[in-house]
Amino acid sequence: MKRYLLLLVLCLATMGLFAQPMKVSTYKLNNGMQVMLCEDHQQPSIYGAVLVHVGSKNDPADNTGMAHYLEHLMFKGTDRIGTTDWEAEKPLLDEIDRLYDALHKEENPSLRQEILKKINDMSARAAQYAIPNEVDVILSKMGGTGVNAFTSNDVTCYHNKFPSNQLEKWLTMYAERFRKPVFRLFQSELEAVYEEFNMYADQPTSVFFEDAIAAAYGEHPYARPVIGYQEHLKNPQTTAMKSFFAKYYHPYNMTLILVGDFNSKEIMPLLEHTMGNLRNESASEARPFQNKKFMAAPTKNVGKPVTPFEGVKTVTVAETPVNMGVLAFQTVGSGDPEAFYLDVLSGLLSNESNTGLLDELTRDNKLMEVSAFNYAMLEHGLFTLFYVPKLSGQSHEDAEKQVFTAIDRLRSGEFSKDLFEAVKMECLRDYYESMESLSSKFYTVIEIASNNFDPKVYLEREKLLRALTKEDLVERAQKVFGKEYLAFRSTVGQKDIKRLEKPSWKPIVTKNAEASSPFAKEIEAMPVIDLKAQKVDFDLDVQRASVNPACKLYYKENPYNDIFTIQLVFKYGRLHNPLLPTAVDYLSYQGSQKFDGTQFQLELQKLGAKMDITTSDRETYVNISGFDESLVQVLELCSQKLYAPSNEEKYLDLIVEQRLSEAQMNHSDAETWGTALYYYALYGNQSPYLARPSVKELKKMSGKKLLEAFAPVMQSAVDVTYVGRAPKEEVIELLRSNFQFNEKGTDVKMPVRKQVSHPSSQVYLASNPRFMQSNIYFLINGAPLDRAVVPQKMLYNEYMGGSMAGVIFQDIRELRSLGYSAYGAYEYDERTNEPGYTIGYLGTQADKTNEGVEAMSELLLTFPQRPEKFEMAKTAAIRQQEASYVSFRWMPDRVRIWEELGYSEDPSPKVLAALKKMTMDDVQKFHQLNIGNRPLVVTIAGDARRFDTKALKEIGKVVKVKYQDIITD
Question: In this predicted model, what pLDDT tens digit does every residue of 935-956 receive, in sequence order?
Answer without folding.
Answer: 999 999 999 999 999 999 999 9
